[in-house]
């Protein structure tokens, strides 16, 4: 199992020239771990690269 911090993911997008236009996070629909009951564990960004 591995993962990247949210800062790593967003900074990577910005360094690659993308513009972050949106962000969303949601709770796991069927929590398996205790932490998933108290904080969102799914996150997504909407980014586009200008031409």
Plain-language structure description:
This protein is an alpha+beta fold. Helix content is 20%, strand content 29%. It starts with 5 loop residues before the first helix and ends with a strand. The mean pLDDT is 92. It has one helix and two strands, in the order αββ. Strands 1-2 form a two-stranded antiparallel sheet.
Short description:
With 51 residues, the protein is of the alpha+beta class. Helices cover 20% and strands 29% of the residues.
Could you outline the blueprint of secondary structure elements for this entry?
Blueprint (H helix, E strand, L loop, with lengths): L5 H10 L3 E8 L15 E7 L3
Antiparallel strand pairs: 1-2
Question: Notable features of this structure?
Answer:
alpha+beta; elongated; 20% helix; 1 helix; two-stranded antiparallel sheet
């Amino acid at each position: 199992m591995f993962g990247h911090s949210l800062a790593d993911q967003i900074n990577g997008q910005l360094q690659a020239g993308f513009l972050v236009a949106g962000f969303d996070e949601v709770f796991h629909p069927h929590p398996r771990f205790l932490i998933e009951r108290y904080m969102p564990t799914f996150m997504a960004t909407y980014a586009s690269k200008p031409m």
